[in-house]
TrEMBL record:
Pfam families for the chain: FAD_binding_3
InterPro entries hit by this protein: FAD-bd, FAD-dep_Monooxygenase_BioMet, FAD/NAD-bd_sf
Organism, as annotated: Geodermatophilus aquaeductus
Any one GO molecular function term: monooxygenase activity
Family annotation (SUPFAM superfamilies): FAD/NAD(P)-binding domain
Domain FAD-binding per the UniProt entry, residue ranges: 2-312
Protein name: 2-polyprenyl-6-methoxyphenol hydroxylase
Keywords: Monooxygenase, Oxidoreductase
């Protein structure tokens, strides 16, 4: 089949690789003139690692990333309260890996090229006309493509979603800001540490992503204050980090890379996730906050499942409907759990064990095959 994928982020690239591996003729269009990943890094847990492994991409990600088998949960001073030791779902592999978003993009884009897919940068979809047995796609520049399937992987603010599911809900703010920046990895910082300063100070994570690099993040309530000017972002981020101990002072004293700060938003589009021969994947239908560290992971799983269901049924619209039905409950679990954890970070529950218990229960469920 001829497939057009809209968007060259993790969802779009893994979809292209998964579909290309099944023998489909894939074209990926990306509105940007170049690929510019959003944010400094991310964590991939065992379930999405399993999906990457099925595509032959896990080895390259391990080579470019940093293995984590444990996560230290600390108070604001850096004293370890407990250490999480999630199980690995892949023999001989770590429980999770952290990787810079640039490195992950390079791995995925390399795989797209190796799969024989066509990548067109600076190109967007201007029109979709589903004729039942095919889709006529208008592209910027006045060209058209006739394809069998369109995959909308164009993110939280998806134009494809607006076109095919105009009544879908809008993303909603969850009341928190996230600050993120890359930094050199000091020799003494080798573990993933989370430091909890409560609702007033927020929560900080220090995440090694390679032998010489890491990223640091901070979650805090979004009080509606004006954002600092771009030239003051690093200074404002350091000001917020000064309240924390442990590895944070070492990192804050290092040269920080580009600081990214944004309001957290979530989105869960009700079924169906498709109309005719067009389907939506990744953040276009299920955007999550970072509490479960599963946003990109869910997008990667989407790609693998989409390729599977299209291989099982010649009725494309039916296969695309079944894709959404198969994915919805799992993605809802991630979105709703992440939002709940974020609410508890802002308004702690009376029982302080609730966040940990909920996280453990959900991770156990996500360990099941997608």
């Amino acid at each position: 089949m001829r497939v057009l994928v809209v968007g060259a982020g993790p969802a779009g690239c893994t979809a292209a690789v998964a579909l290309g591996a099944r023998g489909h003729e894939v074209t990926v269009v990306e509105v940007g003139a170049r690929i510019r990943p959003s944010g400094p890094g991310l964590v991939l847990q065992s379930a999405p690692m399993r999906a990457l492994d099925s595509l032959g991409l896990l080895g390259a990600c391990l080579e470019r990333g940093y293995a984590h088998d444990e996560i230290d949960l600390c108070d604001a001073r850096g004293a370890v309260r407990t250490t999480l030791r999630p199980p690995s779902l892949l023999p001989g592999r770590p429980a999770s890996i952290a990787v810079s978003r640039v490195a992950l993009a390079e791995v995925l884009l390399g795989a797209v090229t190796a799969s024989g897919s066509e990548l067109r940068l600076g190109t967007t979809v201007t029109a979709l006309a589903d004729h039942g047995d095919r889709v006529e796609v208008g592209l910027s520049g006045g060209t058209t493509r006739t394809v069998d399937v369109v995959v909308g992987a164009d993110g939280l603010h998806s134009q494809t979603r607006r076109s095919v599911l105009p009544d879908a809900p809008a993303p909603r703010a969850t009341g928190q800001l996230v600050w993120r920046a890359p930094a050199p990895r000091p020799a003494g910082v080798s573990r993933y540490s989370m430091l909890d300063g409560g609702p007033e100070l927020g929560k900080v994570g220090v995440v090694p992503v390679s032998d010489d690099a890491l990223y640091v993040w901070l979650l805090e309530p979004d009080r509606g204050a004006p954002r600092p000017a771009p030239e003051r972002l690093a200074e404002a981020f350091r000001d917020r980090l000064r309240s924390f101990g442990g590895p944070v002072p070492l990192v804050a004293g290092s040269p920080l890379g580009e600081v990214d700060v944004r309001s957290l938003q979530s989105l869960l589009v009700p079924l169906p996730w498709s109309r005719g021969r067009t389907v939506l994947v990744g953040d276009a239908v299920h955007t999550t906050t970072p509490q479960m560290a599963y946003g990109v992971g869910m997008a990667i799983e989407d790609a693998v499942v989409l390729a599977e269901v299209l291989a099982e049924d010649d009725d494309v619209p039916a296969a695309l409907r079944r894709f959404g039905e198969r994915r919805f409950d799992r993605c809802r679990l991630v979105v709703e759990t992440s939002v709940r954890l974020g609410e508890w970070e802002q308004y702690p529950p009376g029982d302080p064990s609730l966040p940990g218990r909920l996280t453990g229960e959900v991770l156990a469920e996500l360990a099941r095959p997608a």
